[in-house]
Specification:
The chain contains 1 helix and 7 strands.
C-alpha cells in the first residue's frame, strides 16, 4: 500500500468530539487523525468538533477520507480517517514538528 501522508503521525489517545459524539483518536498528525466509532460516516462527509490537548480544547473541521464500517449490532467499532480542513496553525505546526507527548 502506498503511503499518502505528508506529515508524521503519532499514535496517541486524545479525547475528541466528532459531531457531538465523544471518542478517542487512534493516531493523529498535522494532516488529520483516525478514530474508532460505532457509526462511520461515508467518505467525503464534512465533520467538526474539538480535540483535547492537555487542558485545552481545540476546534477542528475536517473531511472523512476513508471509512471501514463496524457492526453496531455486535458492538464492533468502525474506523475512519479524517483530514483536517481547519485547525489552528499553531496546533498544526506543533503536531508536525514535535513529539505529541510534549503537547498532551
Amino acid at each position: 500500500m502506498t503511503e499518502n501522508r505528508t506529515t508524521p503521525r503519532h499514535r496517541s489517545r486524545l479525547r475528541l468530539s466528532l459531531e457531538a459524539t465523544p471518542a478517542f483518536t487512534a493516531d493523529i498528525s498535522a494532516g488529520g487523525f483516525s478514530v474508532e466509532i460505532l457509526r462511520t460516516p461515508s467518505p467525503g462527509t464534512q465533520v467538526s468538533g474539538t480535540i483535547r490537548f492537555a487542558d485545552t480544547e481545540v476546534n477542528y473541521v475536517g473531511t472523512v477520507i476513508w471509512a471501514r464500517p463496524g457492526s453496531p449490532r455486535l458492538n464492533l467499532r468502525g474506523r475512519i480517517g479524517v483530514r483536517f480542513t481547519s485547525l489552528p496553525a499553531a496546533v498544526a505546526k506543533r503536531l508536525g514538528a514535535e513529539r505529541l507527548t510534549k503537547i498532551a
